Amino acid sequence: MSSDATITGGANTPKVAGAEGVPRAELDRLTDDIVAALKSVYDPEIPADIYELGLIYKVDIDDDRKVAIDMTLTAPGCPVAGEMPGWVEDAVAKVPGVQSCAVTMVFDPPWDQSRMSDEARVALDMW
Fold this sequence. Notes:
Layout lengths: L2 E4 L8 E4 L5 H15 L17 E6 L4 E6 L12 H10 L6 E6 L12 H7 L3
Parallel strand pairs: 2-3, 4-5
Antiparallel strand pairs: 1-2, 3-4
């Protein structure tokens, strides 16, 4: 995964790494569609999507269009910790051109409110 592109979003936007075998135009389209898929996943206790909350740390797209995502939770004891990675995998796997998606939960660095986008701050009234 050698060419990097930053995707737009929260204050600490994740990096998208695409293999050299993925043409730039396709990588850009996949990136946009993956972000849209990520924005369709919500923590049921928080009225903001996981992308705008800053829970997505990294997205890797390999030559075979397999996607690997590193994500975190707002707290390690989150009640949906066991379910949310599956929600993310399902949403991203439905993106046209994506062959598969695997999510890894990470807690380093720990999530904090500084990772949230302005959109999430508005939704949560956290100014």
